[in-house]
Fold each of these.
Amino acid sequence: MSRRNFTFFRNSQLLAVILVTSFGLLLQYRSAAAMEPLPSQHAVDEIDRHLSQLWQDLSITPAPRCSDEIFIRRVSLDLLGRVPTVAETRDFLQDSHPRKREQLVDRLLMSPDHDRQLANFLRTVWLPQTTGPGSAQLAQHFEAWFVDQLRQGAGYDTMVYRILTLPANRAIFEDRRSTEEVASTIFEAVSESKPETLASNATRAFLGLNLDCAQCHDHPFADWSQQQFWEQAAFFTRPLPVSADQLARLEIQVVDQSETVVARFLDGEAAVLPEQHDHLTGRRLFADWIAARQNPYLARNAVNRMWARFCGAGIIEPLDDISSANPPVAPHLLETLTTAFLQANLDLRELERVIVLSAAYQRSSSNGVERTDELRYFARHPIRGLQGEQLYDSLMTTSGYSTPRLGVDPYGDLQRRYDFAMRFQVERAEQSQRSILQALTLMNGELVIDATASSKSPAIRSLSAPFLTNEQRVNQLFLAAFSRYPTPQERQHLCEWLSDPEPEEQQRLLSNLFWAMLNSAEFNTNH
Amino acid sequence: MGTSKRGWHPNRRQWIGGTAGVLGVAGSRWMQSLAAADVSMPSRARPVILLWMNGGPATIDLWDLKPGHQNGGPFQEIATTVPGVKVSEHLPRMAQWGTELAIVRSMSSGEGDHGRARQYVHTGYTPQPAIRFPLLGSLVAKEFYSELSELPGFVSITPERALVSTGSGFLGPKFAPLAIGQLGDEVSGLVVPNIERHRDLLDRDQTQRLSLLQQLNQQFINEYQSEVASSMRTATEQAVRLMEPAAADTFRIDRESVKTREAYGPSTFGQGCLLARRLVERGVRFVEVSLDGWDTHSNNFERVMSLSQVLDQAFSALLSDLNDRGLLDSTLVICQGEFGRTPRINGNTGRDHWPGAWATVLAGGGVRGGQVIGATSEDGTTVESEPTTVPDLIATVCSLLGIDPMKQNNSNVGRPIRIADPDARVIGELV
């Protein structure tokens, strides 16, 4: 992101707040911005070194590096939210450049599909409540806003700040539907506009701190007290008193108790209201503190979530409970990534780049037995179920359709995607389990039946060309669905099986094979 | 089909590395297990049927009337077959089942919002943003899970959509409710979506598809062992079993005689109760049937009267049908909603949300019937004796089913969570 954007934003809206509370912070922002960002290769090398050492210390033999076929499928699913097309896979496999994986990653990071996939991921982290019946529009508003922000070059901290500071009121929001205001309102809406819910959702989403238990009593496992929970909630209240002759304060009554508490940051510093304030000043103070780069939790939480997204487990688990009770399994890894992210000015693409180019991300997931220590220390790649959106977009891509685009394709296309994705919602991809209804939907539902019907499916129809050999047909289907060529055994048997002189019969067989592939565990996992 | 032109020739077994016995679907494991399912199914004792009164029923007008008090409204009480136990005059058929009924009149909770209260009563835990608590049906389904069962452990008939997406929460989709229709559906909506294969497909296509799929999965899982991949294969196998005529037939209420169908009444809820009976008879462990319309902020008495008639007919027909088949003692039936309604009657002759005092009814399933547990105050506003919480009820249901309510499940936040809240207390009079 550009630092200029950030300061402009603050100058225009928050000058008073900054002068009172954030002058010191701003000085540090400047010095941080002046630092040269580390080349990400340096960070990648450091991560690889740390993890090699860790595996050696723990006597874990890491899995081998994954094949190019697996890599392009994995990284396309992770960065674009879909499997690669046949052409993309072919090109990559034919490429003989020694740094072709880096080049591929750089290309993917600049693709519009990437922005949408990242928006989708952060929606599930920031606004988990927007996956459910009736939330399709909220979800799409947020994703559109996020993509817009990303394209404007907003850094992670800026976006966190923006989503927390609400527009003046609902009436204004109704009149002025800029995407930014819509997104801010979503955060308010999913938190039922209650100060305590806003506080706990915000600390969980942006800092990885779990204050929920502290709502009713002191946190049993971690460091947070009930007092601290309500001190956070107080930021989301209107300043009291309204009259000018008393010192203003942000205050809230603890639910079910008579006492009131005053806003205070989690690091113990009291919140000081500027002389000029309005009903949103508390939120701005809170957002300022949360989104400050020297807030030790902001970048660390982002890094931990992003690592878990790609590598199947957080460096700290549970993901929403960063506390002294839950130490990181690889402290150096967490520190290196956090430093790299900060030095890249909290540019999310840079963080993604470092992670997917690390050796850990590129480990094979093939195995004899599933061993938990290998997975916990990132020495083997986990096998992950596809997220609903990934599955939908992959089915589309595989069968030769394009995926629906935000703000371009008709609302109905996006609604269909959302409805499908909701039915295939996955909490943690590496622990996902399939239900019977999901299986029935894939087996007999319209989407896969049409995608594989010889009369409709572009993928099947493209195979009817008489000049194609059966081997080419089988290759094509395997590349489309599995992003790999068939093994010699598969090729031999399937070609033999397909050898029917009747074109119609052959189409039928191809349709059946394609149906089986789309329902298979290989297609439905990122491995 | 092993030797037909389009089948997998014997030598093609080697394609998947010599795994024998996967040629053709007819001889495969997932078809055979259908036949074996009845034998291998764990004890059939005590399945649960939850009759869910969506919207929050005015239990003060059903199970705990206050005749003579100004909060009581126009309804009269009638005697049941148990001396001293009375219910609403609009539940005359249920009154005949007095000896089977245990009426808990002392329920209360702190949740007065529909969404939160539904979550709470269904899961036993106050909703928290991050923890995805599973529905009771999923918790029960997990305890009695059998990979060989041809039917899912938890079926929810015309559920509210938000509850379906809550589903099995952190237990994962394996124990998610199989949802049949949704609130507001007609009787014609009582079908399993996508249970039939596409009409254009011939038998040989389907056979070939399933055979190919099984081989692809076997080959993949040999190389990439994981719970994730296995669960996909398992779900597919379960779905295929469900599509088999015998299993799919379980969901066909049109297989019942006209007399039986009429006994339950023409409503979707009545026919849903009949479907529930068919399902528990075939080994489903938990069936939930929803009846919507109880959110009677206005015109309470007319609406409750008409809903009572639907409930009375369906509930009594269910008990009668279960009894005739010798299943009543082993099938626990629970009837409740997310909260009760204000004893005070509002300006629109309605009643508003009242989580402070409400009633739950249990029957069958080894419950000690013919009794009332707890009491509310004369005006119906507060619980006066034997206060009972939602976790208490869940712990009680668990012990009736032989499940340890303090058993822990791994949650999505990395902490184990007990089936029922640790403070829950089993209602001694019921078990």
Amino acid sequence: MRSAADPVGFRGSLAAGARFPAFLGFLPHTWCDVDNVIETLNLTKRFGRITAVDAVSITVGRGQVFGFLGPNGSGKTTTMGMLLDIVTPTSGEIRLLGEYGRAGLHRARQRVGATLEQPNFYPHLSGYDNLRVKATIQGIAKARIDEMLERVGLTARRNSAFATYSLGMKQRLAVAAAMLGDPEIVFFDEPMNGLDPEGMREMREVIARLRDEGRTVFLSSHLLHEVERSCTHVAIIKRGKVLAQGSLAEILGRHTTVALQSADPVELRAALGEYPPAVRVSQEGAFTIVELADDDLAAMNGFLAGRGVLLSCLVPRQRTLEDVFMEVTMEDAVEVA
Amino acid sequence: MSALQLLRVEMIKLRRRTAFVVMVALFVIGTAIVFGVRAILARSAAGQAMPFALPGSAAEIHGVLQPLIMFFSFVTVVNLTAAEFPWRTARQNVIDGLSREQFFTAKLLLVPLTTFLFFVVGYGIALLIAATGGVDGALVSVPVVKAMLGGIVTAIGFSSLALLAAFATRHTAGAIAIVLGYLMFGEPVLGAILGRGGEALGRLAAYLPANVFASISSLGQYMPGGGLFFPSVHEPIATPMLLAMASAYVAVFCGSAYLLVRRQDL
């Protein structure tokens, strides 16, 4: 059960399926929703007076490709940092793969692969030795290192120092490192940054392969078209607040946009102003653009006809993530103003 | 994850690490040159009056090596710790599965290990060269052995301070500057201020970290009636007391470094 105070349903899930009382936290947490692999509740991070992340509550289901969208400085990396324990939250709760609490989250992070901001490796070590560092930490067999280097096409450069790698090679090594422990969740922070078109295509293929393998991918980006191509679910964050989240279909279908034409545009706009589902009306040349809260175009047409407005053209428009992003972030800007 | 596994991770990081190789090479070459020249001079006609042999020269070896071991140990600890932050590998280690406590423990293990490395290599080279001049009975006298062991405590103490400085500044040069600044200016100034405050305060100067570490590695501390004297201290501090103070300083430095790792964002 979700509510304004508990949008992720932490308390609801506990109450609904609890097997153990909370004080028996060392027992397996079988009460949690196993389909949700990442859950945050009112996660907040303040740096002095600045609130970088403001009560963020998100839910990511198993197998989703989750796009965390937002402009630069909106709190994406800080949120991911808190999920990965490199940033200490000021308040709020995190549940990862059903685990919570310091020890539980540490256990869960053994089943996670991630790279944050940029590929972070030892510049003097070879690609192979950099992966050995992680393999030793996680107790992974050396054969797996060779397998991953082969998979990302770095076998020929396995013994070259990381500092000599191109940006694309560094990104590929970061993917190999993230995948080394056969993780259930993979975090990528701005994975397309600085890549050429070929590199971006490769990264899209990697994400698609991870999705096909049933892994959960959590990626942050400000490249809306890339997220739209790769993700199944998105959350939009701005100034540290999540403004919208849901499946891509839900987010894109939140409003229906239609381009209309009639003999008298002024009369048409006036009639649309009286039509309750019409959220926004604007003019683009000869077309009147209307955003509807529902998708019942026949009802709208009937309403306009009832007002004596006859349409000569009615074209449903395919909305893009960029349209939604602009809408949501502008709504937020208006609210702030 | 065991301490051995953490050490294995640190050993992998040391591969091709130029700064580490240069530090060890400088120490080895420097030690060999200093004591090699001393041995050659002792065998020359002019050097007959000052022989370089064991156990007679062990005290001289300790006097030369002690500050070198301390310096090279703490600079190496700073270098191997602080560099993890600009490279962002500290955060990647945690993302890759180390807890913050394990990351700290791995760095803490470097403190005794680097000290041990420079201690064994330094005294190994120096005693070997001195032994070529002749050995009369034991290699090293008991007071010198005690001073050498005290020297290990001193190097660990300064390396612990260096560890704290490295986690606090996250910058190699900054951390080295803090440790050297405290040694060369901070404590002398503090000691002078305390010295002006009367006898009771003046006695406290002997208990400041650098003075405690200097006393515990001083050969005089272990000679009959010896001990490092300070202007306002009229009797030496007993060795068990020095050891307790040194241990307390190491605990404070390492504990503070641990709290920084626990609380700060990586």
